[in-house]
Input
Amino acid sequence: MHRTREPRMTVFTLHRGTAPLLVSLPHVGTELPDDQRTRYVERAFAFEDTDWHLEQLYGFVRELGASLIVPRYSRYLIDLNRPSENAPMYPGVNNTELCPTRFFTGDPLYRDGAAPDADEITRRVAGFWQPYHDALRDELERIRATLGHAVLFDGHSIKSELPWLFEGRLPDLNLGTAGGASCDADLRAALAGVLAGQGRFTQVVDGRFKGGHITRHYGQPTRGIHAIQLEMCWRCYMREQPPYAYDRARAASVLPLLRQLVGTLLSWRPARG
Output
């Protein structure tokens, strides 16, 4: 039996595993600090743009020896998958910001005049964004130093249709590798092969969602750190209407495929020499 350490932090929980894999779920948080709640419109407290139930869905990764990092606070406070300088992830289309001011529908998230100013954004970066990223960096470096390489899997989920963000209906499974820049080509091909080898779920590699800041920033294949994002539609495992309930039957259909993807990440080794 392997040992794990599970330090519980103020803004995130880290389960430290023994395998060369770190799973990050940056948008699962459903809390807002008490001193910020009066800024938001009432609708915000339903947290409709959360990556719902992913901690439950990916709970199996701990049993396989992977590390797992999970934030406490909502993306409505600060988006952990955006760069701290707030550069847009997808130029030319609608984006939400580092400290989002709109729901995914495009409607205002804050009460009139209550959106955070530059000083408040700086405070949120220091208090909420930076600790998560310090932990990501440190855990990846620990894994790489111990095992020779590290793989970062950034797990996301989203409603299938959001006209303000993208046209039409999103494929069920959207694998992102920053166009192949964030991981070894052999690993990308292996994961793409897993997706292509099944016919139940629609899928695409490096389509609309190529990977956000976490994938692009930490994926450094030449340094032995490989990063992949999976954006999965809610319809694969849950109900897409309030109260956004977990659907065990749907989840049972997609879990074997998720296990296969994670198994591929765990078993893959970079070529030597």
About this structure: The helical segments are 54-57, 60-63, 118-147, 185-196, 213-218, 248-267. Residues 12-267 form a domain with the Aminopeptidase fold (CATH 3.40.630.40). Confidence is low (pLDDT under 50) at residues 1-8. The CA atoms of residues 191 and 261 lie 6 Å apart.
